[in-house]
Each structure stands twice: as C-alpha cells, then as structure tokens.
Amino acid sequence: MLRLEKLVKTYKTGDQALQAVDLEIPEGQVLALIGPSGAGKSTLIRCINRLVEPTSGKVHLGNVELTGLSTGGLRRERRRMGMIFQEYALVERLTVMENVLSGRLGYVGFWRSFLRRFPQSDVDEAFRLLDRVGLAHMADKRADELSGGQRQRVGICRALIQNPALLLVDEPTASLDPKTSRQIMRLICELCKERGLAAIINIHDVALAQMFVQRVVGLQLGAIKFDGPPEGLTPEVLTSIYGEEDWEATIEDVDEDEEIEVAL
Amino acid sequence: MSDTAFDVQTRIGQPWKKPPFVRRSWLRWTLILGFIVYLIAAYLTVEVNWSRVYEGLERGKKFILAFTSPDFTSRSGDIWEGMVESIVMTVAASVVGIAISIPIALGAARNVAPLPIYLICRGIIAVSRALQEIIVAILLVAIFGFGPLAGFLTLSFATIGFLSKLLAEDIESMDRVQAEAIKASGARWTQWINYGVQPQVMPRLIGLSIYRLDINFRESAILGLVGAGGIGATLNTAFDRYEYDTAAAILLIIIGIVMALEYLSGVVRARVQ
Question: Which domains does chain A have, with CATH numbers?
Fold first, then answer.
C-alpha cells in the first residue's frame, strides 16, 4: 500500500535526518514508529505527504509515485493521506465544525469553502464522525474552547473526513495525560480497524506503542534499527535504539498495562 | 556528573553577576561616555532666543484662551463642509488602502510568498514608508490640483505602507503547524490562506484597520495645510485670518472624533480576540 524506497532527507544545515530508509506497509496495518528525539520520526512522515521535501528516494502510495508529482497531483494525493498532529494543530479561531470540514478542502472548490457552503454529504459525514468521537454537541464551539483530549479527537475527525487510505500520525499523545493518551491511541487504532486504514504512528511512549499496534519500527539517527512485532522489543533492542538505560522497568510496565487493559 | 571541566569550587562563595551586553569594559565605557558627551554637546547647539519666546507667549496665551470660547457658529458652514470632506476622504482612503494592503501583506510575508514576490512587495512597502505623507501630498496636489482627490490618494498610499508591513509581520509570526495541517488536507493555496492563515491574523487585521482609520482622520487634518482638502484647509484658513476661536472649535471637533474612534477601536478589539 505504502512503499518507501531509499528515502533520504538532508536539511540545509547538513543534518542527515533520514538515511536511505526502506519501508513497506501493507493495506490496513497500523505501525508504530519509535525512536529518540531527533531520530527523524517527524521528518519521515512529513516526507511521505511532502510537507517536507525529501532529498532523494521514492514514495509509492498504491501505484502512484509521490515524490515526482506536480503541485496539483500532490494535492490530489494528499487527500488520501490523513494527518494527525502533535499539539492537535487545529485552527484555533475556527469552530470545531470548520476544523472538521477543512479536511474536505481538497474536494471542494474555493468559493464553496470560502462561503462555508460544503456539500450536504460532507456536513452529514462531519456530524457522524463527531458523534463517533462523542463531540457532536460541540460542533459550533470554537476550537480553542476545547480540552486537549477533545481537540485531538477533532483532529482525528479532520483526518478521517478526507476519506484517506493512510493515516500519518505525529506524536498524537505527546501533550496529553496518561489516561487520555490511551483513549486517543485506542480510538485511532479502532477507527483504523473499522475503516481498514493503514497508519504510521510516531510515538515516543514505548509502552503505549506496544499496547496497541501490530508492528513496531525503531528509528535511530535516520536509520531503521528494528522492525518487528511489539514483543520483539527486548532490552537489547531498546538499547540499540535509545542507548544504554535500564529497560526492565519499561517492559514490566507494559505487562501491567496489558493486564489493566484486559480488566477494562 | 558535569559533562565539561568546570571546577565548581572556584565559584562557591563568589558573587554572581549577569554577563554585560558589551563584554570589553573599555569599549563599554567609551560607548556610554561618548553618548553622554554627544548628548550634552547636542543640547548646547540648540539656540533659544528668550526675548522672542517672551513675545510669543502672549500669542500662545491668546490661542489657548480661545479654547475657552470656541466659535462653532460664525463659520459653521465651512467647518461642516470641511468635516464632511475629511470623513469622506478618510473612509474612502482607508477602505481602498486596506483592500490593496492585504494582498501586498501576503506577498511580503516570507512564509507565504516565494522570494521574487516577497522582494517586490517589500519594495512597495519600503517606498510607501519612505515617502512621508506631506511630501506625497505636495506631489499629488501638484498633479491633481487642490482638493480632496489628492488627499484621498495620499492617505491610500500611506495606508499601504503601514498596514502591509505590520500585517506581513503578523503573518510571519503565525503558528506554522495550524497552517500546515490545512495544507496536509490537500487544500489549494487560496483555501490554505482562507482556512490556515486568515483566522490567525484576523484580530490583528481588524485592530490595525481601525487604528489606521484613526490615523488617516488625523492626517486628513494636516493634509489640508498643503492644499489636499478636508478640514485641514478650513483650519488653515482660520489660522491665516487669526480666527483662533474658530480654529479652537475645529481642533475640539477633531479631538472629539479621534477620541470616539479610539473608544470604538477598544470595543471592537475586545470583541474580536
């Protein structure tokens, strides 16, 4: 479904954020991308929808190659990639509804969007999605009136209303408390399952990643150091990704968490 | 646990001071003393003719006393006409100026516009800001003749420099991620501006627009002095005829309107936050 071929990103400062990354994600797979700060996780997912231009390499989404696309072509393909951000990235002075509907901008013309006259089907879908995440009653509130968890759920609706084939998720829980973090991760993973979406989730909370995903990729200094199921994250593997540290606590933590998960 | 060699023992018991902005002390003191010497020398070169000041005090007193008996009536027709002309000039120039400023501000924001457009728009702003209103007004009066047309054009031109520059700076300091999120949905450029940028800068745009309306009204009173129409022309005539009571009346009206605009801008800005 998504295939990265020798993807390289070198910033103008000379920092090599990605060093020839190869990665293939089949239809409907949810993948967690872990790694220390500065490992290139954000750069990697931004290179996929070209919010950051990759220096070289190829990105195939289905049978379309993204790096060679013109502006218009790129816009069309971006509609198939929903993005969820760290710190939510809602437009704060717009209403919740406008934020959700902004996910449809790639499908409607300028004047329709300017006059906020979206097709009825888009409005209906927006309400359905907001209802699915429990926020339908907040539609006319301004985005900056919402709490962190609520904002992220609006962010999820905005990504899903694009009707994407792939979700790019950048640190969805970084500014949320532990409980809300889990709720958000669970919601994202459930929605991916319901809709058969593939997803790349950048996350620095290893335990949280292990709890929800089928596959973990570990990135260090722009290179893949680990690719496998969550159970494969042994202390040795974590050391190779993050450096020397006592990992037993983190891993034990996971076991406890899983028990709690079952109890819930 | 420290990463670099730093012997903390040499610093224990020593007072700590913030490092000075200019590190070399001789340079720091040269700059400070040099500035003080220059300042004193500069004040000494300003000549004051005290006998002239004494004579002038009498005229000043007459002028200020006129405010106690402003004459709104004897030239009410002229005042009314001048005022209407000024307000028309102000509103028309503000609307046109703001309408032109918005695209230029977008072009002058480095995070929105490509480099060539950025340079052109910054150039337009620089020209507009470099030419002071009075100079532009004198030129335009020479081209279009006496009257409010020259004033209207002058104020429109001045509005562009002011509003584009400040709005562009606001666009440059906006939250990049909010705009990025809109871009990631596949929005086209115009939609991106409308959804990602506009909501972030709207309060500032409204605040600046009202502030500029206020400035334009005050400027319109000055522009009359060089023949560009408006209440300034009436004021000028009053001064020329030594009718200080009429001049006082005009100034009081200007002060009243500026204060009303000030109050209005406060109310509007509080509402659009």
Answer: 2-263 (3.40.50.300)
